[in-house]
Design goal:
single chain, mainly alpha, Penicillin binding protein transpeptidase fold, 56% helix
């Protein structure tokens, strides 16, 4: 598994904003867990046991991808809870977001924002436009199936929705702080 690790200053603020808009809009405000989403997912999964809906935050996904194995078990979920709590305590939101953008699968065999930017758009992660970042983020629910380079109608529509959410979120001071969109020293 090849990754092109880049620091947060080598990532476009658009990429950071796009994944927050797509995956975890409460990211700057929660302590690693979105309890309302977890409750909604549990209700949904009870009603439709064949179609599992997740409610993992960016922090939980980092804990799982960095420290744990893939799969579903109560032991793994318990360890994920522990590591999520610890990274929230020790790393902070900017570092968690940086790690997420470096470890998440963004296409089949494509891990991290730098590799995705180069593979799909022939550019560095720091140069991604809003639209390009939204296209990559739109594929995150199933990056082995959805494609950023030649998006389906569904992914094109989802990326437009993500860009609308990016516009809505970009003025929030906490979002500006974690993405680097705000003035230096903001918060």
């Amino acid at each position: 598994m090849k990754r092109d690790y880049v620091g947060r200053n080598s990532m476009s603020p658009n990429a950071k904003l796009a994944v927050i808009a797509a995956e975890d809009q409460l990211f700057p405000d929660h302590s690693g867990f979105d309890w309302k989403s977890i409750k909604k997912a549990r209700k949904y999964n009870k009603r439709k046991p064949g179609r599992i809906r997740g409610a993992s935050t960016i922090s939980q996904q980092v804990a799982k991808n960095v420290f744990l194995w893939q799969g579903r078990s109560w032991i793994r979920k318990g360890l994920e809870t522990y590591f999520t709590f610890m990274i929230e305590l020790v790393w902070g939101k900017k570092r968690i977001l940086e790690m997420y953008l470096n470890v998440v699968e963004m296409g089949e065999g494509v891990f991290g924002i730098e590799m995705a930017a180069q593979k799909f758009f022939n550019k560095r992660a720091k140069n991604l436009s809003r639209q390009e970042a939204a296209l990559i983020a739109a594929c995150l629910p199933n990056p082995k199936y959805f494609k950023a380079k030649k998006p389906s109608g569904y992914i094109s529509g989802r990326s437009r929705t993500i860009m609308q959410q990016m516009n809505n979120l970009q003025t929030d001071p906490d979002i500006q702080y974690v993405t680097g969109l705000g003035p230096p020293g903001a918060k």
